[in-house]
Write a structure and sequence with these properties.
CATH topology of chain B: Rossmann fold
Number of domains of chain B: 1
CATH class of chain B: Alpha Beta
Helix content of chain A: over 70%
Structural class of chain B: alpha/beta
Structural class of chain A: mainly alpha
Number of strands of chain B: 12
Number of strands of chain A: 0
CATH topology of chain A: ABC transporter involved in vitamin B12 uptake, BtuC
Number of helices of chain A: 14
Oligomer: heterodimer
Strand content of chain B: 25-35%
Order of helices and strands of chain B: EEEHEEHEHHHEHEHEEHHEE
CATH class of chain A: Mainly Alpha
CATH superfamily of chain B: P-loop containing nucleotide triphosphate hydrolases
Number of domains of chain A: 1
Strand content of chain A: under 5%
Largest interface: A-B, 37 and 47 residues
Largest sheet of chain A: none
CATH architecture of chain A: Orthogonal Bundle
Strand order of the largest sheet of chain B: 6-7-8-3-9-10
Largest sheet of chain B: 6 strands, mixed
């Protein structure tokens, strides 16, 4: 009698394992790519060597060093943190996108629907204008992003009428306010160094990510992603609409607030390190929905894994295609938009 | 479970919607709620579900005021069966039915094999187990409605509220759904069914609650209560009642009937 349930579970597991496998292989391959090619075997050796050292096995069973310190430096200190960050950001933005799509019952919702990226952009532009260091640019962007969404949330709570519609409208208003603010900051910025810095930040990039950047970003991401994963099935209920979800026993206001808070946290943490990266949060949940269905029990983890794959892939292109880096925000659109058109044109396969 | 409504009065922005509505509904009973559009049938359901708490009078389920219940506690007692409507996302039938079990799970938990079994049993009970892995939006209106009934069963609440469940169904499906609902009432569920079709009340209901201008126009056993006079009060149209070999039939009479 449980046949279909079991089949569904197995299929879900298979898709998720497949996606995780692709992500793993892509991480290894990405470590070999760069201006200075490192063979895959050496990459694996270097990683094992590091792992050995961490767990203290290197004294018991030392590994023969077959690689140069230059190779090790490129793989461990330059590529690894950047790859980690690309995966984390892709994962976070896709999870946030899938969450907002469920919360707003709208497959067109993206992580910045409540103005998160407008706020982050304003914060970052302000920090650059004030001549802050890159660490403070990140902090300003994070605070700007969270602050904007908080403002949107407060406005929507005070307004009468449907909460979901209020949130979206308030998001558009406040978002455009901050985007006007950013435009003004660009206008008054020093055109020789500040303006290009702002413009470059707005296009999004993962260049310059070092080990010390990973943990401060990963902590808020984890704080947001864990509750999202735990609540992912409840997201199904919320996507039915307030009235029906409530009748099924859901405290809709509380659940929505928690989901928005967590999704905003991971979005802000992502944008504040990477700059504005669009498309991932919109396209990846769509693709995942085609692969694994709309049930968020499968959809959310699948979006996270594929989001990591997608952003890592885009970042690989970004740092390897040309001599100079192509900003990742441009590439996600260049790859994302045609892909979205493809999904749109493709014949729907019924479940 | 017994539902007891006493002097329920509700106004929406100073416009009175319901005034002094009182009735009881007992286990094993199918109570049809009749009334014209906008008479407050849906509002009545919202008050019972605790979605609207600013009402005067009391609504009690086995002696407990619904205003004191959380959404989760209400879901434990009352299941709501909506009209079929489009869903934004393509959930499978099983996904939809599983959602009925949410109030039995801790907020951070997802349903497991136990809940999946409950959902399967609900589908089997309604004879639609074969639809389990179909996508909800590929079902016919009647199947979707049965799917919502299955969700209500997996909710394991003993009071079922059905808001015009048959309004978008063809005749065959209307009767199929109502047959199922009638069986559930016989099984001991307390069923409140709002409907536009007085004939459904005649065929299936034990008692009728007729609402007019927000108050109770009539309440009682269906044969005694649902008369042509009540029909005219409710809908402003004359009606005639016929006794046929397969039960009473009430039909509206066109006001232009004689001039044709």
């Amino acid at each position: 009698m449980d046949k279909t349930a079991e089949q569904g579970r197995e299929r879900r597991t298979a898709v998720l394992l497949g996606a995780a496998g692709i992500l793993f292989v892509l991480i290894l391959v990405s470590l070999t790519l760069g201006r200075f090619a490192v063979p895959l075997t050496e990459v694996v050796r270097i990683l094992f060597h590091k792992l050995w050292a961490i767990i203290g096995l290197d004294r018991v069973w030392p590994m023969r060093v077959t690689w140069t310190t230059f190779m090790e430096n490129a793989v461990v200190n330059v590529r690894l943190p950047r790859i980690f960050m690309a995966v984390l950001v892709g994962c976070s933005l896709s999870a946030a996108g899938a969450t907002f799509q469920g919360v707003f019952k709208n497959p067109m919702a993206s992580p910045d629907i409540l103005g998160a990226s407008n706020g982050a952009a304003f914060g970052a532009a302000l920090a650059i204008l004030l001549g802050c260091s890159s660490r403070y640019i990140t902090v300003f962007a994070f605070v700007g992003s969270i602050g904007t969404v908080a403002l949107v949330f407060l406005i929507a709570q005070r307004a009468p009428g449907l909460k979901v519609v209020n949130l979206i409208l308030a998001g558009i208003m406040v978002g455009s306010l901050f985007s006007a603010g950013t435009s003004y900051l660009k206008l008054v910025a020093d055109p020789t160094n500040q303006l290009p810095a702002i413009t470059y930040w707005l296009m999004g990039s993962l260049s310059g990510v070092r080990h010390e950047h990973v943990l401060p970003a990963a902590i808020p991401m984890a704080l947001g992603l864990v509750p999202l994963l735990l609540l992912r099935w409840r997201l199904n209920l919320l996507s039915l609409g307030d009235s029906e979800a409530r009748a099924l026993g859901v405290n809709t206001d509380l659940l929505r607030a928690v989901l928005i808070l967590c999704a905003t946290l991971v979005t802000a943490a992502s944008i504040s390190v990477s700059g504005v990266i669009g498309w991932v949060g919109l396209v990846i949940p769509h693709l995942s929905r085609k692969l694994i269905g709309s049930d968020n029990r499968g959809l959310l983890p699948c979006s996270m894994l594929l989001g990591g794959v997608f952003l890592l892939l885009v970042d690989d292109v970004s740092r390897n295609l040309l001599q100079t880096e192509i900003p990742i925000g441009i590439l996600t659109a260049v790859i994302g938009a045609p892909f979205f058109i493809y999904l749109l044109l493709r014949k729907e396969k019924t479940l | 479970m017994t539902l007891s409504v006493r002097d329920l009065t509700f106004s929406y922005k100073k416009t009175p919607v319901l005034s002094d509505v009182s009735f009881d509904a007992e286990p094993g009973e199918l109570l049809a709620i009749l009334g014209p559009n906008g008479v407050g049938k849906t509002t009545l359901f919202r008050c019972i579900l605790g979605e609207q708490k600013r009402h005067a009078g009391t609504i009690e389920i086995d002696g407990v005021d619904v205003r004191t219940l959380s959404a989760r506690e209400t879901a434990h007692r009352v299941a709501y069966i909506p009209q079929t409507h489009a869903m934004t996302f393509r959930f499978s039938v099983q996904d939809v039915v599983l959602m009925g079990t949410s109030h039995t799970l801790s907020p951070l938990a997802s349903p497991g094999r136990k809940q999946e079994r409950i959902a399967e049993e609900a589908l089997e009970k309604l004879g639609i187990g074969h639809l389990s892995d179909r996508s909800f939006d590929t079902l016919s209106g009647g199947e979707q409605q049965l799917c919502y009934v299955a969700r209500a069963l997996s909710q394991q609440a003993k009071i079922l509220l059905m808001d015009e469940p048959t309004s978008s169904l063809d005749y065959g499906n209307q009767l199929r759904v109502l047959d199922v609902v009638k069986d559930l009432a016989k099984d001991g569920y307390t069923v409140l069914l709002s409907t536009h079709n007085p004939q459904h009340a005649l065929w299936y209901a034990d008692r009728v609650l007729a609402l007019h201008d927000g108050s109770v126009a009539a309440l009682g056993p269906v044969e005694e209560t649902l008369t042509p006079a009540l029909f005219e009060t409710l809908y402003g149209t004359r009606a005639e009642l016929y006794e046929t070999p397969s039960g009473s039939v009430i039909l509206p009479v066109s006001n232009r009937g004689e001039t044709k």
